[in-house]
C-alpha cells in the first residue's frame, strides 16, 4: 500500500509595501503592488474642481502611469488593477551626487606638516603598512600590487564608504566653497596615496594631489 502525501498549499506571502516618502504631491491614495512598491492615485490640482475626470495614477515601481483624464472610480480601479499585477521591485535610492568642489591631498607625516584640510585622515596606526614588505617598499600607489594590497586591507573599504558619506555631509551644509581632505600615512607612497586616489575616483570632479608620493623611501 502506498501512501500519497498531499502537499499542503503554501499560502501566498502577502507583500506589505511601505508608503514611500517620494509620493507625488497630489496623491490621494496608494495601492501596494505585488512587488512591494506602490501605485499612487493622484488628482490634477489644476482641474479637479471643475473636471470630474481629473484623476490619474503612477506606479512608483515600474514607472507606468495614466493620463489625467479619468473619473475617480475609473482611475482607482485601474490603479488597483496595475498594483495587483506589477512585480517591479523597489529600487534602492541613488546616492545624491556631491556637487561641491572637493580637493584631496595625500601626504606622508615623515615629510613634514600635514596640509590644512577640513577632514584629515591618519592611516598610520590602524592599517597595515605595505612598506614592511620588501617587495612593495619601493613601489607606490601607481602600482597595481600596492593598490590591491591597500584596498584589500580590512577596514579600508568601510573607511572609503564612510569618507564618501562624510564628504557628502559637508557638501550638504549651508556654506559653499571647496571641501579639502588630507589623507596621510607614514611615507605617503602606499596607503595614503591609494586611499586618496580611490576617494577621488568615487567623487566626480574631485582634484587629487599626491604631495609626497614621489619622495624617496624613508628607511625606518
Ligand atoms: Zn508598475
Give the assembly state of these chains: single chain
Low-confidence stretches: none
Give the % helix.
Answer: 10-25%
Task: Provide the list of bound ligands, each named once.
Answer: zinc ion
Computed over alpha carbons, the radius of gyration is 28 Å
Percent strand equals 15-25%
Total DSSP E strands: 7
What are the defining features of this structure?
single chain; 220 residues; alpha/beta; 2 domains; 5 helices; 24% helix; elongated; binds zinc ion
Describe what you observe in this structure.
This protein has 220 residues and is of the alpha/beta class. It folds into two domains: 27-83; 102-210, no CATH class. It has five helices and seven strands; from the N terminus they run βββαββαααβαβ. It has a four-stranded parallel beta sheet with strand order 5-6-4-7, with helices on one face. It has a three-stranded antiparallel beta sheet with strand order 1-2-3, covered by helices on one side. Strand 1 (27-32) and strand 2 form a beta hairpin. Helix 4 packs across helix 5 (191-202). The chain binds zinc ion. Zinc ion binds next to loops.
